Amino acid sequence: MRHLVYRVQALSQSLLPLVWDFGTLRSAAPQSVSGTSSGDTESAYIRQMIVKFNQGNRNNPDKLQFGHQTGVMAELLASSQAFMRSQKDECSFVSLRDVQRLLDVAGWFYSRRNHIFPAIDRLAHELDSTDEDDEAVAMIDRDKDYTTRSLVLAVGVCYLARLEDSTRIAYAKYIKKKIETLIGGGADTNVYRMSGRKFLFTQIKLCQDMFINEVVNTEAHKNIAKNKALKENVFMMIVCIENRIPLFLVGKPGSSKSLSKAMVMSAMKGKRSESIIFRGMKEV
Hints:
56% of the residues lie in helices and 0% in strands. It has helices at residues 41-56, 70-85, 96-111, 113-127, 131-138, 142-158, 165-174, 176-183, 196-216, 228-243, 257-267, 276-279. One of its GO terms (molecular function) is ubiquitin-protein transferase activity.
């Protein structure tokens, strides 16, 4: 995609008087995003979008609301937008559509919270089961926890997945403080005992592992190796199918593109799905 070549035709002189430049929203510089400044129009729009999102879900307790997290979430999204614009490739093209997409995806994760997050927690418990972990789990406010994790997973889908591996680490460092505000501080103070960066990557990895386990736990796919590319492809396909988000898988031959498509199509059969996770999802 980055080397796509196409021809751009010059605009006719007769049309030039009709061209109008509406400009762009002013956004904070990538190094200084810490809230809504007087010249940061985009942050103000983002905050208003979140407030409107909360108001739309206010009368339905089963839908996602950010409540007192609205402010820090607006800062997190403004930071994400600024970071993406600082990139030198196609990742730099972002708009408020990306913000709305993230809100929709976060709402989707939250709407599936009673299936997705318990499955993730069971997987995490199997991977690392200690008495200290059990004590930490008991201290977690489930409703707040599901809200935060829904947001973090949506960040993974809408921003992190676009970036190269090395840039993903830089992005995670960039939004680390915002995530730590959401989870109650750094590794020494929050109940997860993780830094913001580790929390982001851990939640995404666990969700990917959970989805791939549900897909592979069928007779047809039980002997397939769960490599990193396959996990990410399956994760992104499932989320994008459910949320009607266009997805382009670009990679070298052998990077599990066709395999992941076949596996997702085999697993997502609506109410006929073998996995309970997929029975409430679309049939492909």
